[in-house]
Amino acid sequence: MQSRPEKPKLAWAITGSGHYLDECLEIIRDLPDVDLFYSRAGEEVIRMYGHDPKALTKDGHVYRDRAASSPPVGLFYRGDYHTLVVAPATSNTVAKMVMGLSDTLVTNVYAQAGKCRVPSIVLACDAIPEVDTPAPDRMVRLWPRAIDLAHTEKLRSFEATTVVDSAEALYETLKKRLEQVNADHG
User: Fold this and answer.
1) Ranges for the Flavoprotein domain (predicted)?
2) Cα angle for residues 90, 95, 101 (degrees, 5° grid)
């Protein structure tokens, strides 16, 4: 096992949504040393939208959902990360997070981040009653179900979890968090 890094870094988990995907990838590309965690659907969607999952981070590692026990969660136990971002987060992932299910790499790292008291920022795709979102070939209008909106609201009450409703809010929340981390680890 590798030794603990001198300075914890950012972990970013991507699920299988095209909603906010380009905005999230734009933020990721501007971040130094971020590790990416893909759900199986997240990796598929990245490819469907024309991106290479291996080329999105300059200095970080890429972890894929290929093992039942999600071995990369051990990195949270070692203190490798100061923050977990889950963005974009599908309604399926949000529902699993709310129910405490950890059956994908993304839901498992979210659970372990919480158990290790690592703050999480979640950009929930289903946070407003009506939304226009890009499909791979066109824009579509969606109306999230009441249950999807209820799960997003419930997730807001979870300890060490900040839920944001837009890419702009994600950017601003992450910027503040990174400023705090840099001040703490100066």
Assistant:
1) 9-156
2) 115
List the chain domain ranges: 9-185
In terms of C-beta density within 10 A (0-12 exposed, 13-18 middle, 19 or more buried), how is residue 66 classed?
Answer: exposed
Q: At 78, phi and psi to the nearest 5?
A: -80, -15
The full DSSP string for 52-85 is -GGGS-SSS-EEES--TT-GGGHHHHHT-EEEEE
* pLDDT value for 58: 81
Amino acid identity of residue 70, one-letter, is S
**Which residue type sits at 186?**
G
Assign domain 9-185 to its CATH superfamily.
Flavin prenyltransferase-like (3.40.50.1950)
pLDDT tens digits for range 96-126: 999 999 999 999 999 999 999 999 999 999 9
Instruction: Find out whether 88 and 21 touch, Cβ atoms under 8 Å.
Output: yes
Using alpha carbons only, how large is the chain's radius of gyration in Å?
Answer: 15
Q: Look at the pTM and tell me if it is higher than 0.85.
A: yes
Segments of the chain with pLDDT less than 50? 1
Q: Is the peptide bond before 32 cis (omega within 30 degrees of 0)?
A: no
